[in-house]
Amino acid sequence: MNGHKCILAFTLLAFLLCLATASALAEDDGLKIQGWMLNRLYAGPGNAHFEMERISLSAKKKIDTDIDAYVEYYYHHWVNRNVALGSPWFLESAYVNYTDERGNNLRVGKGRNYCFGIVPDYGNRKTSEYGLVAETFTQERIVGVQYFGSTPDKKLDYGIAAYNALKMGSRNSGTDQQVFRDWPPPIEHVVSHLADKGEGDNLEFSARVAAPVVEGGKVGLSYRTGELRPSEISYLFSKNLVPGGTTDDTNRRWGADFDYKGPTGLVAQAEYYDAEASTLDFKGWDVLLGYVPPDDPMGVKFYARYGQLDLNPPAVTTSEYTWDQKQLILSVVKPLRAKKPVWLQLEYIKNDEDPDPVSSERDNDVLFLELFTAF
Q1: Domain count for the chain
Q2: CATH at 108
Q3: d(CA 330, CA 310)
Q4: Is 173 in contact with 151 (CB distance < 8 Å)?
Q5: For the chain, how long is the longest CA-to-CA vector?
Q6: In a domain, 25, yes or no
Q7: What span is annotated as the signal peptide, if there is one (predicted)?
Q8: DSSP SS3 for 3
Q9: Which tens digits make up the pLDDT trace of 295-325?
Q10: What digits encode the pLDDT tens for the residues 264-288?
Q11: Do 71 and 94 meet the contact criterion of CB atoms below 8 Å apart?
């Protein structure tokens, strides 16, 4: 182990010990410290290998009966292998939340956007990986202020947010951590796609409403609006997604979704998002079906999600950003403890793309077995 890794390991251990000590000392003072980790066995592409995927460490402090403060850090062990990826520590969330007498929330800081689409946290997304559509439209945290809650009769959920705009960026389909052993990732195992990623320096606004339509099911409508910066238009041009000379700074998203949890164990979700970024129109949609055994905390859970990302560029070129993509995720979850968040999850991700005539599809499917452990 080299000196750099020794320092990182010591820092992580010291941080964990400090958190544990603080948690014990402050247990009666409204401070709650917790965490979770993901350990995976990958089986492709490339050679099978183990990966400590990530560790989450968080602290929540009840400042008053109606005010909480929350901070969460992620530690990505695999970043240590490549200095180009930056620090392995990442500030995931940091916000203050005020809850009014009706249970509605005013949240200031960094966190998930509860005012656009289905929030893809663990409880909502079901699969371990986010999936193609969530990666494109809803995964990224926002920095700003949001107000969300329900009407007194609980028949309408609503939310509105103002925050630093999300930048046009990219994510990879098929990236298991094997590719991070080489940087940049070998193209034969990944396909990049457009995504809302990163924090800009202008403002953006979003709003959402949702209402029950059947017992256990809700339909939601969402809208986001802002403006692209010149650098983002240039980014789109560099990926062959808009023609040269474009100055249109339009940046809008709207979405419709359905979420259902039934008494028989059936769960279902559907999402549709339509986007305008300068002169580019693109769409994403997915459907999830699953089964969660009712009244059986040790029962095996099954999930299947299919999604598509459809673009309308000036032309389909050798730039993979212009390719339509499809994705199927199959996931099986086996709880290991009835009342503790510890489980095994086997997940297979089938990625397909529609390349230009001179390019070929890539071997970017992923299979892994994951142990989730909360502490």
Answers
A1: 1
A2: 2.40.160.10
A3: 21
A4: no
A5: 65
A6: no
A7: 1-26
A8: helix
A9: 999 999 999 999 999 999 999 999 999 999 9
A10: 999 999 999 999 999 999 999 999 9
A11: yes
